[in-house]
Amino acid sequence: MSRCFTDTHCHFDFPPFAGNEAGSLQRAAAAGVQRIIVPTVTADRFARVLQLAKDYSPLYAALGLHPLYIAQHHDQQLEQLAALLAGKPDKLVAVGEIGLDLYMPAPQFERQQQLLTAQLKLAARYDLPVILHSRRSHDPLAALLRRTEVPRCGVVHGFAGSLSQAQAFIRLGYSIGVGGTISYERAQKTRAVMAQLPLTSLLLETDAPDMPLAGYQGQPNRPERAAEVFEALCLLRCESADEIAAQLQHNAETLFMPVA
């Protein structure tokens, strides 16, 4: 049977997709990737991502301020984000990419937490889920999520933490993003985690053009490779491939497209 996938995290507003949108979407569709969620990283990309979602039926938008760009963000951009969310643009499905990062140099961690809290409150106000970035920050992120309720919850994307950390997020109602890391034999910890988590808590993603899969090192990642992430996941799980595909798609639709 043919399978349908949603790439729940793809930076389609960046090269190599920018300027080759139609061709890139044809390649994705040929692999069964029928929907792609595009999160922003900075405020100057809000309009571009909303326009992409308007122009191309497979694309959906998420708007947020990414912690890696903390030095570029200011409070007026939070006001800009709030105004856009209040307008309820068509095909806006999440607040993201937002989160915490303790791997970057000069993380300004207090400011990161303030910015994240403000964006979580916006997600709650406008009844949207969140797409969360977390590097070396799973425990403080979970603690912050316990203090700031987001009714629609969301996903911790590109997860590579421990089983107990993943379970902590799941207990809070959050899903876990499964990406190309599991295609690497050396990623034994992450592969073991993805094998053990409830299938109902997993979402498929690429993080393209970042996070290339094994065999594609040095090349831009692409949304059609969500199908290869799926294949790698099937090798780790006890369920049938059909069950895994159906549940992953159900998870994506339930979280991001509840009216679909």
Automatic annotation (TrEMBL):
<feature type="binding site">
    <location>
        <position position="207"/>
    </location>
    <ligand>
        <name>a divalent metal cation 1</name>
    </ligand>
</feature>
<keyword id="KW-0378">Hydrolase</keyword>
<keyword id="KW-0479">Metal-binding</keyword>
<feature type="binding site">
    <location>
        <position position="157"/>
    </location>
    <ligand>
        <name>a divalent metal cation 2</name>
    </ligand>
</feature>
<feature type="binding site">
    <location>
        <position position="97"/>
    </location>
    <ligand>
        <name>a divalent metal cation 1</name>
    </ligand>
</feature>
<feature type="binding site">
    <location>
        <position position="133"/>
    </location>
    <ligand>
        <name>a divalent metal cation 2</name>
    </ligand>
</feature>
<feature type="binding site">
    <location>
        <position position="11"/>
    </location>
    <ligand>
        <name>a divalent metal cation 1</name>
    </ligand>
</feature>
<dbReference type="GO" id="GO:0046872">
    <property type="term" value="F:metal ion binding"/>
</dbReference>
<feature type="binding site">
    <location>
        <position position="9"/>
    </location>
    <ligand>
        <name>a divalent metal cation 1</name>
    </ligand>
</feature>
<comment type="similarity">
    <text>Belongs to the metallo-dependent hydrolases superfamily. TatD-type hydrolase family.</text>
</comment>
<protein>
    <submittedName>
        <fullName>Hydrolase, TatD family</fullName>
        <ecNumber>3.1.21.-</ecNumber>
    </submittedName>
</protein>
<dbReference type="InterPro" id="IPR001130">
    <property type="entry name" value="TatD-like"/>
</dbReference>
<dbReference type="GO" id="GO:0005829">
    <property type="term" value="C:cytosol"/>
</dbReference>
<dbReference type="InterPro" id="IPR032466">
    <property type="entry name" value="Metal_Hydrolase"/>
</dbReference>
<dbReference type="GO" id="GO:0016788">
    <property type="term" value="F:hydrolase activity, acting on ester bonds"/>
</dbReference>
<dbReference type="Pfam" id="PF01026">
    <property type="entry name" value="TatD_DNase"/>
</dbReference>
